[in-house]
């Protein structure tokens, strides 16, 4: 199978990490090639190029020049309100696209994008990285076992201290996709309603705290806390079942299982590099022109929740 050629557009905080990981994969394993990077900020391109000895001829400040370069796939790490336009243009150039979440700002645009990809036989993929987290995947297996019992409650805490002042990074758009996607992994359902309260306690002009209550079938409920004022980074998921319960530390990739009788014990899944697994998956999608996991459809559902189903209280 050919080594897929990937281009990354948007070399900010996250795009820089993504591009560096592609280079690591390229240099250590040779299974993908970072064939181009793009950013309107030439200083960002030069910093990346100089630090990592990346060829200047493969850096682009013009989007159309970038999209017309020799790449099979485009990994989009630009501001949220540019996702639709860039992804649509990439599809027009015959590229497979991976769009960092959220897929788009509006559900109608996400629908158009996924439909366009289907019509062109080009996968449209959303960057839901926790689909590749070893602990979350193992927890989903445990929850589906008969011994766990029917799920009653899910609690998710996604917290850290943020110092940026970017109006594009409202906490619901930036962190909100993860809890809904992870809950779907665990219980194979999407919420029929979501109540939400948001707060801007530091007066920075964006929502920095959000509390959500998501309703599912058979009275299942998920409580979600998103917080950018919390001093310690926390990525925690709790699942309460009729016969067992568990807690996932998504950062350290460990699971604590609590039987209804007996002592709790720790399950250590084999820790993996979830970002690397996601990027390798995207490379395969570029070669095979398919998205077997269905990350595009998951991204579409999450966009629908964020744009259509959240009710503010």
Radius of gyration: 20 Å
Gap from first CA to last CA:
52 Å
Derived from helix and strand composition plus strand pairing, the structural class reads alpha/beta
Q: Strand content of the residues, in percent?
A: 25-35%
Number of domains: 2
Q: Judging by the overall fold, what is the CATH architecture of the largest domain?
A: 3-Layer(aba) Sandwich
Query: Strand tally, please?
Result: 15
Largest sheet: 9 strands, mixed
Give the number of helices: 10
Mean pLDDT, rounded to whole units? 95
Residue share in helices? 25-40%
Secondary-structure element series: EHEHEHEHEHEHEHHEEEEEEEHHE
How is the largest sheet built, in terms of strand order?
14-13-12-11-7-10-9-8-15
The CATH superfamily of the largest domain is known as NAD(P)-binding Rossmann-like Domain
Description of the structure:
With 313 residues, the chain is α/β, with parallel strands linked by helices. It folds into 2 domains: 5-128 and 275-290, NAD(P)-binding Rossmann-like Domain (Rossmann fold, 3-Layer(aba) Sandwich); 134-271, 2-Layer Sandwich (Dihydrodipicolinate Reductase, domain 2), CATH 3.30.360.10. It is 35% helix and 29% strand. It is built from 10 helices and 15 strands. The strands form 2 sheets. A 9-stranded mixed sheet has the order 14-13-12-11-7-10-9-8-15. Strand 12 and strand 13 form a beta hairpin. The radius of gyration is 20 Å and the shape is globular. The protein starts with a strand and ends with a strand. The mean pLDDT is 95.
């Amino acid at each position: 199978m050919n080594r897929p050629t990937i281009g990354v557009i948007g070399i900010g905080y996250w795009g820089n990490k993504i591009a560096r990981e592609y280079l690591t994969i390229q240099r250590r394993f040779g299974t993908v090639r970072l064939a181009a990077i793009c950013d309107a900020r030439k200083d960002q391109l030069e910093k990346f190029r100089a630090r990592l000895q990346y060829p200047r001829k493969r850096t682009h400040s013009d989007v159309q020049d970038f999209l017309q370069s020799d790449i099979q796939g485009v990994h989009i790490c630009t501001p949220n309100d540019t996702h639709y336009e860039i992804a649509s243009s990439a599809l027009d150039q015959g590229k497979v696209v991976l769009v960092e979440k959220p897929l788009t700002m509006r559900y109608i645009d996400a629908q158009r994008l996924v439909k366009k990809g289907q019509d062109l036989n080009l996968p449209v993929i959303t960057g839901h990285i926790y689909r590749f987290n070893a602990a979350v995947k193992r927890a989903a297996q445990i929850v589906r076992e008969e011994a766990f019992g029917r799920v009653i409650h899910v609690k998710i805490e996604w917290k850290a201290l943020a110092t940026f002042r970017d109006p594009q990074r409202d906490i619901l758009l930036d962190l909100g996709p993860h809890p809904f996607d992870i809950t779907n992994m665990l219980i194979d359902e999407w919420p029929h309603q979501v109540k939400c309260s948001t707060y801007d306690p530091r007066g920075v002009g964006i929502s920095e705290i959000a509390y959500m209550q998501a309703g599912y079938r058979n009275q299942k409920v998920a409580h979600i806390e998103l917080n950018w004022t919390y001093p310690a980074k926390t990525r925690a998921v709790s699942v309460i079942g009729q016969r067992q319960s568990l807690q996932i530390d998504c950062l350290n990739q460990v699971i604590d299982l609590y039987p209804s009788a007996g002592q709790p014990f720790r399950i250590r899944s084999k820790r993996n590099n979830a970002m690397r697994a996601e990027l390798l998956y995207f490379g395969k999608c570029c070669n095979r022109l398919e998205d077997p996991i269905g990350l595009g459809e998951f991204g579409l559902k999450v966009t629908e929740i964020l744009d259509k189903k959240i009710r503010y209280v």
